[in-house]
Write a structure and sequence with these properties.
About 40% of the residues lie in helices and about 15% in strands. With about 240 residues, it is an alpha/beta fold. The longest helix has 22 residues. Bound molecules: pyridoxal-5'-phosphate. Its cofactor is pyridoxal 5'-phosphate.
């Protein structure tokens, strides 16, 4: 089977999973946006997904983003990885959404970059769900992000920054936990955020292994890598 056919079949299966999960949750499938996470895969796969109608594509490393995004300026590029302040300018140049705003010190760098690039950057606050995991952060279940208690301060900073638009929250479920419990926690964090910032409506949650649980708990964006592209080559 050629790669185009494989991607077509995978995309169809993923869309069916999303639809089924939405129906089961009493939600409309149009409420959920699929973001294809193409990290480690060649730009030819991005082209193939784009030809199949995918418009939202994400990367987790600046080095890959800056190579792939210029080849497909027609797509909406999302940055979902750990972000160093010194890479902010490059990420802002190539992406229109950053899912991983996780600390106050990053906000100034992103704002400065957005102003310099003359664009408005959509920002999601990456929330740590470690406290909903097996033993909290102590087990190494923490997969990054700001603690729920620190969300209001970070949100206020983003909302007040030039060039940034506070769009919502993002999270990765802790390893070895029930994703439902973690995503229910995220949904509460998101609701509290919306009560202060009405436009912050996005919930980026759910990956290939747990998209159903995320959709049950209000995800508006699911980030799918393996389900679309297959097993990633090891980065060593
Ligand atoms: C790699 C990655 C994904 C996609 O994970 P899969 O399990 O391959 O679907 C989603 N979110 C982030 C932040 C990632 O780094």
């Amino acid at each position: 089977m050629n790669r185009e056919q494989e991607l077509r079949d995978n995309l169809q299966l993923a869309q069916e999973r999303i639809e089924k999960a939405c129906v089961a949750a009493g939600r409309a499938p149009q409420e959920v946006t699929l973001v294809a996470i193409t990290k480690t895969f060649p730009v030819s796969d991005v082209a193939a997904l784009a030809a199949l109608g995918v418009v939202d594509v994400g990367e987790n490393r600046e080095q890959e983003l800056k190579v792939k995004a210029p080849e497909h300026p027609e797509l909406t590029w999302h940055f979902v990885g750990q972000l160093q302040s010194k890479k902010a300018r490059s990420v802002v140049r190539h992406a229109s959404v950053v899912h991983s705003v996780d600390r106050l010190s990053l906000v100034g760098a992103l704002s400065k970059a957005a102003v310099a690039e003359e664009k408005t950057l959509r920002c999601l606050l990456q929330v740590s769900l470690a406290s909903y995991g097996p033993d909290g952060a102590a087990t190494g279940a923490d997969r990054g992000g700001v603690a729920p208690a620190d969300v209001p301060e970070l949100a206020a900073e983003v909302a007040a920054a030039d060039g940034l638009e506070l769009a919502g929250v993002m999270a990765v479920a802790p390893l070895g936990s029930e994703p439902d419990k973690a995503f229910a926690g995220l949904q509460e964090v998101a609701a509290r955020l919306r009560s202060e910032h009405a436009a912050a409506t996005w919930i980026s949650a759910g990956m290939s292994g747990d998209l159903e649980a995320a959709i049950r708990h209000g995800a508006t964006h699911v980030r799918l890598g393996r389900a679309l592209l297959g097993t990633r080559p090891s980065l060593g």
